[in-house]
Amino acid sequence: MSQFTFIVNPQAGKGDARKVFAAIQRELRHRSADYRTVMTERPGHATEAAREADSPVIVGVGGDGTLNEIANGMAGSGRSLGIIPAGSGNDFIKSVGVPRRPVDALQILFTGVPRTVDVGTVLCTADKEGGGNSSPRLFVNGVGIGFDAAVAARTREIPLLGGTALYLVAVLQTLGRYTAPVFSMHGEHAQRNAPALLIAVGNGVCAGGGFYLTPDARVDDGLLDICAVDDKNVLEILRLMPRVMRGKHHNVPGVKFFRDRSFVITADTLFYVHADGEIVGANVRRVEIGLRASSLNIIVPKKHGQR
Fold first, then answer.
1. Could you tell me which of 288, 10, 8, 272 has the C-alpha nearest to residue 155?
2. Which CATH class is domain 4-111?
3. Does position 104 have pLDDT exceeding 60, yes or no?
4. Is 142 helix (H, G, I), strand (E, B) or coil?
5. Which of 45, 110, 189, 238 ranks highest by number of CB atoms within 10 Å?
6. For the whole model, what pTM was predicted?
7. Span 53-68, pLDDT tens digits
8. Which residues are within 8 A (CB) of 139 and not within 5 positions of it... i.e. 6 or more apart?
């Protein structure tokens, strides 16, 4: 049994993940580390590889979507997740303190400590054209509903760009062609019925490569943070974006915050849903969001360990 199983998504970061892992391998050889490697070949492969791996530490080399797949294969197993960021957004690391530079993130695998965090669940019900998921899917960072998810879908069609630049371009290209549904949200604390630009559900603080939609979220507090933004025109959205990128939109008119453990969202028209940046629902009419507290162990820097 190897100490580490590295699950590498070679398509992550517009193909940068392959180069990132080549550099990581040189450092692993220098350390004489005991590890094995799985290169993913298709959607869902990382989940299968994580489920089958027998290493105590499974390391995701990719973006938030790669971590999502791995978590779906290992959450609740008692094994630990290591992170080498190599995606376009890399939002989840901002909530757990893993360094952005891959070589620094590798160091954490050897010097860090385990931290137990929550994971969310998302179940989409679609119309007769399909586009839902028949069983709950886990997410580690967040879910986006409405405009946020439409932007995530658009990023898949934009070549070359990555990071915040990719999401900014996708936002600009989605503006003007998006119609806000009337969303009904029902939970113990989250109650709402109004046209909404987006509803962001955060286990972590950041989404979309640098948008701090749920800046007060904690990955281990047993709650999900919700940011609901009323329907806005293009100029209002452009004015809001800089504040969201700093997490300073608490007092903006038409922006509401909630915390809850589970809730249901429906709409009068079909909508998109993303989980950790990956589209998990298209043509969706209903989505159920839940929480599994303390379900995933992550290797983090010592100063970000269990609190």
1. 272
2. alpha beta
3. yes
4. strand
5. 45
6. 0.91
7. 999 999 999 999 999 9
8. 68, 71, 119, 120, 121, 122, 203, 275, 276
